[in-house]
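Lab notebook, bench 4. The sequencing result for the construct came back, and we need a structural model before the next group meeting so we can plan mutations. Quick request posted to the team channel:

Model the 3D structure of this chain.
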Amino acid sequence: MSAWSAPLRLAVSLGLPPEAFWRLSLKEWRALTEAPPAPAPSRADLSALIARYPDEETPP
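Done. Here's the predicted structure in token form:
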């Protein structure tokens, strides 16, 4: 198997024909295959984390 087998199979599973795959730039390929960024936690989620894992008090 070549190094291109897995990326080409992924492209086809995304509905991208092989001809279009070979025309993609690396930047375009990464945009198609990168996971979206994780959403920011809500205020309630952040408050729950702070309550669960409080900062340790340091002596003055």
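Helices lie at 5-13, 18-23, 26-33, 43-52.
Will bring this to the meeting.
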